[in-house]
Amino acid sequence: MSEDTTNLNFDPDQLRARYQAERLKRLREDGNDQYLEVAGRYANFAKDRYEALPDREPLDIEIDALVIGGGFGGLLAGAELRKVGLSDIRIIEKGGRLGGTWYWNQYPGAQCDIESYIYMPLLEELGVMPSERYARAPEILEHVQRIADHYDLSDSAILGTEVTEMHWDDAIRRWRVSTTRNDEILARFVVAAPGPLHRPKLPGVKGIDEFEGRSFHTSRWDYDFTGGGPTGGLDKLGDVRVAVIGTGATGVQVIPHVAHGAQHLYVFQRTPSSIDKRGNAPTDTAWADSLQPGWQKERIRNFNALVSGVPLEVDLVNDGWTTLIGKMMDIFRNGDAEMTGRPVGEILELANFEKMEEIRARVDQTVKDPAVAEALKPYYQMFCKRPCFHDEYLLAYNQDNVTLVDTNGQGIERITPRGVVANGIEYEVDCIIYASGFEVGTAFERRAGMKVYGKDGRTLSEKWNVNGMRTLHGMLSNGYPNYFMLSQSQGAWTANYTQLLEEAAHHMGVIVAHMEANGFETIEPTQESEEAWANEIVASTENAVGGVGGSDCTPGYYNNEGRALEGPAWSSNYAKGSIAFFQVAKAWRSSGDFHGVRFTSLEEA
Asked: Which keywords label this protein (predicted)?
């Protein structure tokens, strides 16, 4: 691509070449298979360290609705079903408490990277205001429980339990659900809201089970060993040499706390994260008192519009997310002479280069050792990986007790009884902390841990393996009556994930309300409607300009670890954007005819 770069403070061709080189050195044929399933011989890494699970007798019950997942998605679904008038609702959750991702992510430093005023749902409804702009895990977990209590979902929750399989019984029009605690549950409705971040993964390297020291995953933090708690203070690490493997969004938050407490910390990095400033602060009470009714939804919509690339006169949130996009949009608004007349994709690329140059400059401004600073610079497009915002992470590398082990994109080589091998060097440590994240791109049944058998006896995965994912709006699938999925697949992608969950839960609630008002017993989409929606999903991806985690990005969970999907992108999100998707969903339910679904009543049995 040739272009006039006279007034740019970077060379686009050099950056394109560097980005491509960094991508190629990290590509692997095994994609998601490079990670170990935390089961079998590695099951100890999935052990719940936070709550002891009491013994109980198996349940044998019939209920109105079973909600799978006790995070924000499950609670918002439960709240909508409660509003509709369903009385017997049970949430089933594998954790020892409700909370979903925020129950598992109790590691030190866990915190919102989306402003808590828009991330924490139902603030106005419950009369709550977060204490900080970016709330920490304990406060978020407290809000989860607050929602559950408000909608009377706590006492009946089935905790420490996972669904293993469920079968649709057409004779009685109920789901027969089995669990890991030998429960037998009959449910008229099932809502699957397990969330994308709950099943830990480990790097598939040799010797991971041979290490003789202490090791654990960040989502199962071992406070008995480290001391301290979710806000830090790891006072038992004073004579401990620690390895942290992983520098993604979790590692970025964990590393400053471990650096403060450990005798020595070795950070093993395959790909550096982009680190922008966070700028957290206590909530301004005068500002909070000035807010008018409807403020939260207005703020949520404003944020989503800006990160979706819609130019607005007012930026209500004005944080790292919106300013990232704002840099791109300023080019259009201001008619930058250097950019005028270029194709849209090229303008976005150049603005992206400019922002990432700022991110890299921030590393130089913060990290004292030039070699370490160079290794910490991300060379890829913004949104190839989830952007990170932190004010202490880069500073940690100025401490004498912190060593960055950059693996030049290759990752660690193996684990030994004494430590970690990278770049041909063994680093002896007493503790290994895996900040390797959660499974995202693996098969639905593996992540959910359950099999869903429909009317014809096929599992949902078996159906989708034939011709690809088939749903209506990512929520309903033909042959699986009264089964609702809250997911971004064939739905919307938003940076603020709880907005997606609120929209999806409301969509489901309107459908169920319609069923209750009209005496309908079941719902499922027609084959024609889900085929049309699947084709619309694929068409939207083919016509999209740019996107999150594109195929030219460094590998990560945003792009299936850099492994191109074969065939049409059936399981992608709606690439026209979340705003367009929400409008489509609203128009569909507002029409009143619920086109493309079939309702049945008891008389039609």
From this structure: FAD, Flavoprotein, Monooxygenase, NADP, Oxidoreductase
